[in-house]
Write a structure and sequence with these properties.
The complex is a heterodimer of chains A (about 290) and B (about 300). Chain A has 17 helices and no strands. With about 290 residues, chain A is mainly α. The two termini of chain A are about 20 Å apart. Chain B has about 300 residues and is mostly helical. Chain B has two domains: about 40 residues, no CATH class; about 230 residues, MetI-like fold. Helices cover about 75% and strands about 0% of the residues of chain B. Chain B has a two-stranded antiparallel ribbon with strand order 1-2. In chain B, strand 1 and strand 2 form a beta hairpin. In chain B, helix 4 runs antiparallel to helix 11. The longest helix of chain B is centred in the N-terminal third of the chain and has 32 residues. Chain B starts with a helix and ends in a 5-residue tail after the last helix. The chains are: A mainly alpha (about 290), B mainly alpha (about 300). At the A-B interface, helix 1, helix 2, helix 3, helix 6 and helix 7 of A face helix 2, helix 4, helix 5, helix 6 and helix 8 of B.
C-alpha cells in the first residue's frame, strides 16, 4: 500500500499538463468546476471578509465584492491580540519538533535498519505498537508526566514529548533498508565511524524521505490543538490554534478581524504547501494525516 | 585492542546509542502512559489527592451513565455518516480528477488544500459561512426558498453540520489515496477492456473498482479510527451542545479529565475507546480480506 503510493504520486505533473492542453474543454469540466467551487468558496469568502469593513460583514444580503479593501484589518489583529507572539511560539515549537524528529528518527531509523543490537526486534515491535494507540489513551498520564517534569504551561510541554515519533523511525528505517549496503560497508572498511557513515553517506541520499518527514511533522505540529489545549493556560504561551480560539472568544462580533487572523494563521502552511506540494502529498498519503 | 574498547565499539553499544534518544522518548511519552492509563482506570483520582483503588467500579459506572451512552451514540452516528460519505465522495472526486483535461492541476490543488488547514481554521471558516444571520449559505438557500437554518445552533442539525464540514476538510485525503491507486492501474488492462468493447460503467464496476479495493479498505479503516476520535470541532463549535446534541466520546472524556478532574473515570472511557477502535479495525480488516482483491 505504502510503496504503491510513493511511486505513483511522483508522476511528472508537467507532462500531464502538456498533454492536457490539447483539449480545451471536455464534458468533465462540468463536474470539475462545481467541485472546485465547493472546495474554494469557504476559503475565498474568508479572504474577502478579512478585507471588509465591520459594517459590510453585518450586511444582508452578504457583500460579495467589498467597496474598498481594508488591509488595516490585519494590522488591527496584530494590535488587539498577542498574535505575533502566538506566531513566534508556534514557529519555535514547530521548528524544534521538526529538527528533533529529523535527528532522533534518523539515528534510530539507521540503528533499526543497519545495526544488529541486543533487543532490536522486541523494541521495534513495541515502537510500532504505539502507532496503534489513540492519543486520548495516553493523554492523561502524559499530562501527569509533563506536569511532574515542571513543563506545564511552557513551550517545552509542546516540544519535549514530540521530539521523536514512532512513525518517523519506521518511515526512515524502511527507506534506509532500500539503500545499497555496499557503499556503507566500503566506508566502514576505510575506517569511517557509524556516525559519519550516517551523516556523510546515508542522509545525503535520503533527501526526499527526510523532506516528507519534515513536512508532515510540520503540519501535525502547526495544526495540533488538543495537546496545547490541555497544557497551556496563559495567552502569552499559546500557539496559533489556541490563540485563534482565544481571539474568537473575545472578538465574536468582529468577523472581519477574525477572518484576517485566520488567514494569517494559514499563510505559513499554505506557503509550504505550494513550495513542497510533492512532499506534502506523499507525506499525507503515507502517514494518514492528522495524528 | 583493549577489552573495554572492543565492547564500546561493539554493535550492541553503538546500536543502542543511536536508537536510545528516540526509543526513550517514545517509551516515556507513548508506551508507559498506555499502562499507566490502564491503572488509572481502576482508580478514583482527580490528579491531585492520592488515588484510591476501586477495581472495576469505573467500568461498571459507565454502563449506567446516560451521558456516556449519548456520547457513544453520537460518535457512532457521526462515524456511520462520515466514513461512507468521505470515502465514496473521495472515490467519485478522484475518478473525476483522474483525467487529462485542461487545468487539471488547478482542480486537484483545490481539492487538496483543505486537507492541510487546521481543524480550528476550518471551523472558523464554516462558522462564518453558516452564520444564521449573515452567512453565505443561508443567503443562497433563501434564494431557493429555504432556511434560514441554525446549523451549529440546531439541536437536530448540529451533528450533521459537523459531518458535512469534516467531509469537506477530509475529502482531499481520500482523493490523494485514490488518485495514487487509480494511477497504479495498469494501462494495458484498461486498453484491453476497451478493445473488447467494455462499456464505461461496466469497466468501472468490474475492473477499476475491484483494483481500488486495498485503497478503499485502508481509507475505511483509517477514517473510522479518526471519526471515533472527533474532538476539536465539537470543542470549538458547539461545546457538546446545543444541550447534549453533539456530545461525543472524546469530548466527554476531555471534559471529565480536564474540566471536572475525574481522571480515573476518563481513563476508563479512553480504554473503552481503545478496545472499540481495535475491535472495529479487526472486523473491518477481516471483512476486507474476504472482499478485497490484491493484485500482487
Amino acid at each position: 500500500m505504502t510503496t504503491q503510493i510513493l511511486t505513483q504520486t511522483e508522476r511528472p505533473a508537467r507532462e500531464e499538463e502538456r498533454e492536457a492542453s490539447r483539449f480545451l474543454f471536455s464534458p468533465w469540466h462540468l463536474v470539475l468546476i462545481p467541485i472546485a467551487v465547493v472546495m474554494l468558496i469557504p476559503m475565498v469568502w474568508m479572504l474577502v471578509t478579512s478585507l471588509e469593513t465591520l459594517n459590510e460583514t453585518r450586511h444582508y444580503p452578504p457583500v460579495l465584492l467589498p467597496h474598498t479593501l481594508v488591509p488595516g484589518n490585519y494590522t488591527q489583529v496584530l494590535r488587539q491580540a498577542p498574535f505575533a507572539r502566538w506566531f513566534v511560539n508556534t514557529m519555535i515549537v514547530t521548528v524544534a519538533t521538526v529538527a528533533g524528529n529529523l535527528l532522533f528518527c534518523s539515528l534510530a531509523g539507521y540503528a533499526f535498519a543497519r545495526i544488529k543490537f541486543f533487543g532490536r526486534e522486541v523494541v521495534f515491535v513495541l515502537l510500532l505498537a504505539t502507532l496503534m494507540i489513540p492519543f486520548q489513551v495516553v493523554m492523561i498520564p502524559t499530562f501527569i508526566i509533563v506536569k511532574d517534569l515542571g513543563l506545564i504551561n511552557s513551550l517545552n510541554a509542546l516540544i519535549v514529548p514530540n521530539l521523536a515519533n514512532a512513525f518517523g523511525v519506521f518511515l526512515l528505517r524502511q527507506f534506509f533498508r532500500t539503500l545499497p549496503v555496499e557503499l556503507e560497508e566500503a566506508a566502514r572498511i576505510d575506517g569511517a565511524s557509524r556516525l559519519s557513515v550516517l551523516f556523510k553517506i546515508v542522509l545525503p541520499l535520503s533527501g526526499p524521505v527526510l523532506a516528507t518527514l519534515a513536512v508532515i511533522t510540520f503540519l501535525w505540529t502547526w495544526n495540533d490543538f488538543l495537546w496545547p489545549l490541555i497544557t497551556i493556560y496563559t495567552p502569552n504561551n499559546m500557539t496559533l490554534q489556541l490563540g485563534l480560539t482565544e481571539f474568537q472568544g473575545t472578538h465574536q462580533d468582529a468577523t472581519n478581524l477574525l477572518m484576517a487572523a485566520n488567514v494569517m494563521s494559514l499563510l505559513p502552511v499554505l506557503l509550504l504547501f505550494f513550495l513542497a506540494q510533492k512532499y506534502f502529498i506523499r507525506g499525507i498519503a503515507t502517514s494518514g494525516l492528522k495524528g | 585492542m583493549s577489552r573495554v574498547r572492543r565492547i564500546l565499539q561493539s554493535d550492541h553499544v553503538s546500536g543502542w546509542a543511536f536508537a536510545f534518544p528516540a526509543v526513550f522518548l517514545i517509551f516515556v511519552f507513548g508506551l508507559v502512559p498506555v499502562v499507566w492509563s490502564a491503572l488509572l482506570s481502576f482508580q478514583r483520582t482527580n490528579l491531585i489527592s492520592p488515588p484510591q483503588w476501586i477495581g472495576l467500579a469505573n467500568y461498571r459506572a459507565l454502563a449506567h451513565d446516560p451521558l456516556f451512552q449519548q456520547s457513544v451514540e453520537h460518535s457512532l452516528v457521526y462515524t456511520a455518516l462520515f466514513v461512507p460519505l468521505s470515502v465514496l465522495g473521495g472515490l467519485l472526486t478522484a475518478v473525476a480528477l483522474n483525467r487529462k483535461v485542461r487545468g487539471i492541476r488547478f482542480y486537484r490543488t483545490a481539492v487538496f488544500v483543505p486537507v492541510i488547514l487546521s481543524t480550528i481554521a476550518t471551523a472558523i471558516m464554516f462558522l462564518w459561512l453558516l452564520d444564521p444571520n449573515f452567512g453565505l449559505v443561508n443567503f443562497l438557500l433563501s434564494k431557493v426558498g429555504l432556511g434560514p437554518y441554525g446549523f451549529f445552533d440546531s439541536i437536530n442539525g448540529a451533528l450533521y453540520t459537523i459531518v458535512g464540514m469534516t467531509v469537506w476538510g477530509w475529502i482531499g485525503f481520500d482523493v490523494i489515496v485514490y488518485l495514487a491507486a487509480l494511477q497504479g492501474i495498469p494501462q494495458s488492462l484498461v486498453e484491453a477492456a476497451e478493445i473488447d468493447g467494455v462499456r464505461t460503467w461496466s469497466m468501472f464496476r468490474n475492473i477499476t473498482f475491484p483494483l481500488l479495493g486495498p485503497a478503499t479498505l485502508f481509507l475505511v479503516v483509517w477514517s473510522t479510527i479518526n471519526a471515533l476520535q472527533l474532538f476539536d470541532e465539537v470543542y470549538f463549535l458547539t461545546k457538546g451542545g446545543p444541550g447534549t446534541a453533539t456530545y461525543v466520546v472524546v469530548y466527554y472524556l476531555y471534559n471529565l479529565a480536564f474540566s471536572q478532574g475525574i481522571a480515573g473515570y476518563a481513563a476508563a472511557i479512553a480504554y473503552v475507546l481503545l478496545v472499540a477502535i481495535l475491535c472495529l479495525t479487526l472486523i473491518q480488516l477481516w471483512i476486507g480480506r474476504r472482499l478485497v482483491y490484491y493484485a500482487s
